[in-house]
Amino acid sequence: MFERGAPPYFDLKDEYQVTKYLNFGGHLLRPEHCPEEIYNLMKRCWMKMKNDRPEFTTIKDDVNSCFKKLQTKDLETPINHDYETPISLAKTKQNMI
Fold it and tell me: Which residue ranges does the record assign to the Serine-threonine/tyrosine-protein kinase catalytic domain (predicted)?
């Protein structure tokens, strides 16, 4: 989602290389558009020991919390992407009503 459709591990040529990379402790870097809170959650999900990983309810709560923060921030800040016209999320929501 935060890679905007780009495949993960694009620089590794096959599943064997990906598995080897992961077994030696490698993991994805934080995508440019990924909030730090979400990336920290991702890293906790990648913990080797099962008991060190968050439970599903924790994941759900953390993701919901992060997106609520982002939604509040986006209501105040214009979205400015190269492929979009700057527009505020608040105006977009008003047009949907």
Answer: 1-61
Tell whether 18 and 54 lie within a shared domain.
no
Whether 38 and 63 have beta carbons less than 8 Å apart is answered as yes
Residue at token pair 């997106």: 67
Tell me the percentage of the chain whose pLDDT exceeds 70.
68
pTM above 0.70, yes or no: no
Whole domain around residue 63: which residue ranges? 35-96
The one-character DSSP state at 79 is B
pLDDT recorded at residue 57: 94
Structure tokens at 82: 């190269």
Nearby residues of 38 by Cβ (< 8 Å), 6 or more positions away: 2, 63, 66
The SS3 assignment for 93 reads: helix
Q: How many domains does the chain have?
A: 2
Residues in the chain: 97
| Residue 87 shares a structural domain with residue 44 | yes
**Maximum CA extent, the chain:** 51
